[in-house]
Design brief:
Helices cover about 25% and strands about 30% of the residues. The chain is of the alpha+beta class. β36 and β37 (about 630-635) form a beta hairpin. The radius of gyration is 30 Å and the shape is elongated.
């Protein structure tokens, strides 16, 4: 059956990715969205989307009836569930087929078999695939579990039978906490997965995580698309994935792949799936099956040259695989890093907010479900993007990934960018001397942000841009005084630092510093003084739009600069850096409080007047918001009182130093 219209029952980057291949295959993609996702990128990119409920996933993306109704309303022939949400739900698969549509995934029976870890382990045993030793079947009686754990000997891993993606696992290492660990694991299994059943397995302390991508036509023909290594994990959650698995014997990997294929063949596997294993020394053990497309599928696509979504569509249409095992070969090495909106300083808690800045590097594959200006909400997985690098060898791939991560800039939320960069450059990881719990033992080391080689240079550059780019017409610069740029309209005397324009810059680590940009001599030379009195003299010229040439003595630096949304973004040899500048009056106080005239700190346009004549204001209240050099700048009251003599309106252009309002003393 030829699919004409495909409903994508997902969101974010995977929905965008499926839609692109569907459209390229001549299939019309249609999306779904929650009320919270009404303006999301996947809605904009797919072009047609149906709202199915409220923001929480339980009110939208997990509602089977709402998804089926949406598919029927657009005349969909098939539904692709992506990953997560309903992708592994056998009831959903049955509902799709009962409604006369194609479910892009395994049969409901296969989903049931692999959705329960106990039955999945039984299937592996039946297919003669090695499994980790432990108690047979699932257990839910705390006393029985405690007794069997004691018989097995510690450490023991407790795994919820309904768990997946690294969730629902608890390691027992101390008998004094055994009862507490068991009760906690049972509660978590019940609340998260709806079942109290636990598997008891021997714990492998220093194993690697290797998974095999399989594809089956549903009629017994199954192939593997080689393996991926997902050993770098934080609390069982994958962080960086790569293909193929480097540093392991190919004979061992071929054995693992053959077992994965055999398991698929015994169940007439249909569609895409991943069979996961733990590798310890020269032994390997079945872990679980993910019967869906994986987050990390792009690295497999990179080394095989296949489009896995296109292959999935072909299988769903009944056209078979169209390939045999001998057709497949490994080309080079690929690595993927997951960029998340999360705060490493807060135990990687999700970070929500609006992406005021989102700059991602060029020259590599990036799968993303958000753009600059989009919001990261508390409802869903906080992934920003996946960065995928393909190179001839692993060393080159890791080096390119590290460089790419250097040139990621995100503002508005916290991210794990520095953490990923530290991993990409870690010597133990480069030598693959890691295991699945390796990160957890080195979090402090890996989350310490590396310092810049030249922070003084980049801060000085940002300060220069701030005070000089208020208008493209340099003759309109209010600091120009014939041949010299003084900071004062009268005379050139006095201390150079005091005569300079004051700028406060805050970097991505929330560290603020006040700098002063001194007089400018002919040739666009600037001297920037830091808080400790050190000076740096530069000349700065824009050679093409957005690209600047900096001269520091005999040294030339070429950088990119973007000024927008309240930040200055620099593309430097040390990576992409972001600074939030504050105009001189933004931190007014002390002596400035006596000055009740509210003046414009730069030349620009008034975006919004925030007060009206006669309104009471407190010191520090925003009087007006202006836009200058693509930045929005809040102009604040330097003293408390009554707003008066407001002389500008929204949309007016003002010069630096122009009085826009007065703050009169309050009558008490």
């Amino acid at each position: 059956m030829k699919i004409k219209t495909l409903l994508i029952a997902n969101r974010g980057e995977i929905a965008c990715r499926i839609a692109r291949t569907a459209r390229a295959s001549g299939i019309t993609p249609v999306g779904i969205h929650s009320q919270a996702d009404a303006n999301a990128l996947h809605v904009r990119e797919i072009g047609k989307s149906v709202c199915i409920g409220g923001g929480p996933a339980s009110e939208s993306y997990l509602k089977i009836d709402a998804v089926i109704a949406a598919a029927q309303s657009v005349g969909a022939d098939a539904i692709h569930p992506g990953y997560g949400f309903l992708a592994e739900n056998p009831d959903f698969a049955r509902a799709v087929e009962a409604a006369g549509m194609i479910f892009m995934g395994p049969t409901p029976e296969t989903l049931e078999r692999f959705g329960d870890k106990a039955s999945a382990k039984e299937a592996a045993v039946a297919a003669s695939v090695p499994v980790i030793s432990g108690a047979e079947g699932a257990r839910s009686d705390p006393e029985q579990i405690a007794e069997e754990v004691r018989q097995m000997g510690l450490p023991v891993l407790l795994k919820a039978v309904g768990g997946g993606g690294g969730r629902g696992q608890r390691l027992v290492t101390d008998e004094t906490t055994l009862v507490e660990d068991i009760e906690g694991a049972l509660r978590e299994a019940k609340s998260t997965f709806g079942s109290e059943g636990l598997l008891l397995e021997r714990f492998l302390p220093e194993a690697r995580h290797v998974e095999v991508q399989i594809a089956g036509d549903g009629k017994g023909h199954v192939v593997h698309l080689f393996e991926r290594d997902c050993t770098l994990q934080r609390r069982h959650q994958k962080v960086i994935e790569e293909a193929p698995a480097w540093g392991l014997p190919r004979t061992l990997l071929d054995d693992i792949a053959r077992d994965a294929v055999r398991l698929g063949e015994t169940l007439d596997y249909r569609g895409l799936g991943t069979v996961e294993f733990l590798v310890a020394g020269d032994e390997y053990f079945f872990l679980e099956v993910n019967p869906r497309i994986q987050v990390e599928h792009p690295v497999t696509e990179a080394i095989t040259g296949l489009d896995l979504v296109a292959l999935h569509l072909r299988i769903a249409e009944g056209a078979g695989l169209g390939l045999v095992q001998e057709d497949l070969a490994i080309n080079g090495h690929a690595v993927e890093a997951r960029l998340y909106a999360e705060d490493p300083a807060m135990q990687f808690a999700p970070s929500t907010g609006t992406l005021t800045t989102l700059s991602l590097p060029s020259g590599l594959r990036i799968d993303s479900g958000v753009e600059e200006g989009d919001a990261v909400t508390p409802y869903y997985d906080p992934m920003i993007a996946k960065l995928i690098v393909h190179a001839p060898d692993r060393e080159t791939a890791l080096a390119r990934l590290a460089t790419a991560l250097d040139h990621v800039a995100v503002e508005g939320v916290e991210t794990n960018r520095a953490f990923l960069t530290a991993l990409a450059r870690n010597h133990e990881f480069e030598r693959m001397q890691v295991h699945t719990r390796w990160i957890d033992g080195r979090l402090d080391e890996l989350t310490q942000a590396p310092g810049l080689t030249r922070p003084d240079l980049w801060k000085a550059t940002a300060a220069i841009l701030f005070v000089t780019q208020s208008r493209s017409d340099t003759n309109a610069n209010p600091w120009t005084n014939r041949d010299a740029f003084t900071g004062w309209r009268l005379g050139l005397g006095g201390d150079a630092m005091e005569a300079g324009q004051r700028v406060t810059l805050t970097d991505s680590d929330e560290v603020s510093e006040e700098l002063r940009v001194s007089p400018v001599k002919p040739g666009a030379r600037y001297t920037v003084y830091s808080e400790n009195g050190e000076a740096l003299t530069l000349s700065a010229r824009e050679i093409t739009p957005g690209r600047w040439r900096l001269n520091e003595g005999d040294t030339v630096h070429l950088i990119e600069a973007r000024l927008h949304a309240g930040v200055i973004e620099l593309g430097t040899p040390e990576g992409r850096l972001v600074f939030r500048p504050a105009a001189p009056l933004a931190f007014a106080g002390g002596d400035a409080a006596a000055d009740r005239a509210v003046t414009s700190p730069l030349t620009g346009m008034i975006v919004e007047i925030k007060v009206s004549d006669g309104q009471s204001v407190a010191e520090g209240d925003v009087v007006a918001v202006m836009e200058s050099m693509k930045l929005e700048i809040s102009i604040r009251a330097a003293a408390a009182g009554i707003a008066s003599h407001i002389s500008v309106s929204n949309g007016d252009m003002v010069d630096r130093g122009q009085v826009i309002a007065e703050i009169l003393p309050s009558e008490e």
